[in-house]
Amino acid sequence: MTSRRPTISRRPFRAGWCTTGALLLAAAVSGCGASSGELSGMSIPPAEPPPAPEPVSATAQQPEIGSTPVTEDDSEQPARPTDETTRCHTSMLSGTVEEGDAGAGQRYAELVLRNSSGQTCTLYGYGGLELIGQDGAPLPTDLERVPNPGPALITLSPGETASATLHWTAVPHGGEPVDQPCQPTPARLAVIPPDETDSLRVDWPFGPVCGFGSMDGTAYHQ
């Protein structure tokens, strides 16, 4: 008996059917004719689960003691009160000159400043002044400070006053006329409060200031 050799079917090679590195592992195995049994023997590591969120401590959600809370708009918060008292500015004051003692050619008056504002303020020390003529022009003025009383801090509530004592003479000095007024008659004073630069106007009803406008004045006091 003549034996027959088994017929082997030769299939043509198809280029690109199994390309190394071009496809994923499962597709490459399937495309190359691997059976399900061959796949079942392979170990595929499971995907790692995402990391769990870290627990947040309850104390971390609260602001630290002494920390400043955040507000939506700090500009809407009311301003904090302050204990500071401002200096009495010229715009806060009004003035008068009140007649004092007189005798033997000597004249005295009290230059009074009143707190005409609605705010408490302070005065300290000496002020300045200038004699003003009827035509509004400055007149010769020579103000000298005297030490008694000296400077002291004065607190003026609204409506309260402080004064400086002024002294001058009605007796002509050398070089001044004796048969007519020794100096032009002032109409008012330009008064500068302590530590200010602006002046306020005060009526002057006391006639000429002899000695070429020489005056002396104390610090403001109550």
From TrEMBL:
Entry keyword Lipid metabolism: no
Leader peptide range in chain numbering: 1-34
Stretches with biased composition (Polar residues): 58-70
InterPro entries associated with the record: DUF4232
Alphabetic keyword roster: Signal
Domain DUF4232 span(s) in chain numbering: 88-210
Disordered, as annotated region: 34-102
Protein name: DUF4232 domain-containing protein
